[in-house]
Amino acid sequence: MATEEERNAEPQKYYQVKTLKKSLDLLEYFTIEHPEWSISELSRASSLYKSNIFNILYTFMLCGYIEKIEGTEKYRLGKKFLDKAHIVHSNLTNFDLIHRALLELARSIPEIIYFGILNNFDVMYIDAAVPENRYITKSVIGMTAPAYCTGIGKALLSACKPEIVDKLLQTKLSPFTPQTITDPAKLKKELIKIRERGYSIDDREHSNNVKCVAIPIFDRNGNLYGAISASGPSSNFSQDVIEKYVDIIQYTARQIQPHL
Amino acid sequence: MATEEERNAEPQKYYQVKTLKKSLDLLEYFTIEHPEWSISELSRASSLYKSNIFNILYTFMLCGYIEKIEGTEKYRLGKKFLDKAHIVHSNLTNFDLIHRALLELARSIPEIIYFGILNNFDVMYIDAAVPENRYITKSVIGMTAPAYCTGIGKALLSACKPEIVDKLLQTKLSPFTPQTITDPAKLKKELIKIRERGYSIDDREHSNNVKCVAIPIFDRNGNLYGAISASGPSSNFSQDVIEKYVDIIQYTARQIQPHL
DNA sequence: GAACAGCGTTCTGAATAATAGAACAAATCA
DNA sequence: TGATTTGTTCTATTATTCAGAACGCTGTTC
Questions:
Q1: Is residue A36 packed enough to be buried (19+ CB in 10 Å), middle (13-18) or exposed (0-12)?
Q2: First-to-last CA distance in chain A?
Q3: Are the beta carbons of A137 and B87 separated by less than 8 Å?
Q4: Is the CB of residue B55 inside 7 Å of nucleic acid strand D?
Q5: What average pLDDT is seen over chain B?
Q6: Phi-psi domain of B146 (left: phi exceeds 0; alpha: psi -120 through 50; beta: other)
Q7: Cβ distance A211 to A225 under 8 Å?
Q8: Which residues of B touch A60 (CB under 8 A)?
Q9: Distance from B239 to chain A by nearest Cα, in Å?
Q10: B148 CA to C15 C1', in Å?
């Protein structure tokens, strides 16, 4: 007879390499908010033995995925991730076409222009362009945000496979601002509306005082490719302005889509 | 008595997690030139068993480090690397200061402006800025090139710890163009010269017809922080122009260095 | 259309590798 | 000074890995 533990256990995936899984899970402790960890800290947080963590970090370090910070006993993620990210980035076909499109949009629209794709339930920002006289203070590539409360995210959700949306609607939609849509039924309606009119608006749903308008981009076969947005202070985004931006972005979209 | 195999073997690092090492080594097969691999291809290339690779890729896939390409039996690196690269990137202190500096330089200098750091014997490009009316066609972040034949690389080598240069000089300096410095003694002299005058020139040593001028950047304590370069068609870089660019970049460097 | 060759995937137990836990020196703190 | 806490070394036991066979599928060859 099965013990309680056995019954409660996840179905044993015999084809999962536990050592590897454990090691990769350890990397998740290294976040933007907490990028540096000592062996003892990791040991306490993960309830793995110090010697075990030492071995794993040592191996990651051999391969460049972890670096020891000079002069301290702390570790952080290594530059190898930049190297690998460069390869992932270059896998995205027609990156240069998108990049040029963003730069051109940034000349017509005095707001930050983003390109993003769907990664699970998150938007992942892949590229951005900034108009003259504006700056982006943090790096964009690899930045993520929940899809359900961002302009690009909602544009992507409105155009992606229904299964993904169905699954998302079963998760908790946490509020980021008072404007965040947290009711699944309301979000579903919103996505249908976006699908019909062809663009999404993020009205301070992720950050206070930030508004955003986004349009999904498809490849020549009609498959969802990504989404482009213009994003800035909410005071800049009256309904008139939004419609103007939609026209501009849609014009660009029509130009590049046959080449994707 | 030790067998031949035992004597020839690497000193057994007992604290290296072999399964993890092997798995990470597998990721190295996924390059820009060959980004997509099937299980059988990897099996032949690595001489690991198919079932073994299947397990490893499955586990990487669970964590987002590997993706299966839809409709095919091929795998490639996953978006998790972008996520992690974002964290590595944000670890670089004062990124926004550097970014603004590059943008300003791109307004005074009509060439591509790069910022890079030393990663082993390679330059890793971290950020770039492009003047109006110019484009960068490939993504910059995470891009690497050998240090000994690039402007930023030589600037960094001229200012880094002597041990690193000594080790580099023992490796083979492969030529990329007829201009590449492949003689260790000549490179050593060149680095001394660069150190004395404070800037480096890459005269078509990495790419034909591409010239580049670079200067090292130090933090407020005088530690090497990175290097900034201007890079473009060799015909644009006469000695006069180079000296002008050096002045401009050095002026910017003097402004930001106290804040690094 | 039968035989073959390739693929990804499933399964198992012999053999390997991982790691718990003790022990260490060195640094830090009280 | 003694008490903690740190990273690191070491090894025996145990848990995990993975070689190798087998399977079902797809596409190709004769």
A1: middle
A2: 57
A3: no
A4: yes
A5: 90
A6: beta
A7: no
A8: 20, 24
A9: 30
A10: 47
* B138 vs A contacts (CB less than 8 Å): 90, 95-96
pLDDT of B82-112, one tens digit each?
A: 999 999 988 887 788 898 899 899 999 999 9
A40 touches strand D (CB under 7 A): yes
A202 forms beta bridges with: A212
Residue range A4-82 forms a domain whose CATH class is: mainly alpha
Nearest CA in chain B to A25: B63
Picking from A60, A52, A115, A13, the residue whose alpha carbon sits closest to that of residue B61 is: A13
pLDDT tens digits for range A33-62: 999 999 999 999 998 999 999 999 999 999
The answer to whether residue B43 scores a pLDDT higher than 50 is yes
Is the CB of residue A51 inside 7 Å of nucleic acid strand C? yes
Nucleotide nearest to B23 (CA to C1'): D17
**Which nucleotides in chain D lie closer than 7 A to a protein CB?**
5-11, 16-22
- B37 Cβ contact partners less than 8 Å away, ≥ 6 residues apart: B29, B30, B45, B74, B75, B76
CB contact under 8 A, B19 and A15: no
Nearest Cα neighbor of B135 from A166, A210, A250, A129 is A129
Residues of B in contact with A83 (CB under 8 A): 124, 142, 144
**B106: nearest CA partner in chain A:** A132
Sheet of B200-203, strand order: B144-146, B122-129, B112-119, B224-233, B210-218, B200-203
Instruction: State the pTM of this model.
Output: 0.89
User: CA–C1' span, A28 to C24, in Å?
Assistant: 31
The topology under which CATH files domain A92-259 is Beta-Lactamase (3.30.450)
Interface with B, mutate which of A24, A36, A133 (most B CBs under 10 A): A24
What is the b/e burial string over B161-171, where b = at least 16 CB atoms within 10 angstroms of the residue's CB?
Answer: eeeebeebbee
**Is the pLDDT assigned to residue A67 strictly greater than 90?**
yes
Token pair belonging to B40:
């059988």
Residue whose token pair is 């390409």: B69
pLDDT value for A4: 36
For chain B, how big is the Rg over CA atoms in Å?
Answer: 22
β-sheet bridge partners, residue A87: none
Distant-in-sequence contacts of A249-254, Cβ < 8 A, 24+ apart = A249/A105, A249/A109, A249/A199, A249/A213, A249/A215, A250/A198, A250/A199, A250/A215, A252/A101, A252/A104, A252/A105, A252/A228, A253/A215, A253/A217, A253/A228
A250 vs A203: CA distance, rounded Å: 20
Contact B239, B122 (CB under 8 A): no
Domain ranges of chain B: 4-82, 92-259
Q: Cβ A79–B96 below 8 Å, yes or no?
A: no
Q: Is the pLDDT of residue A158 over 90?
A: yes
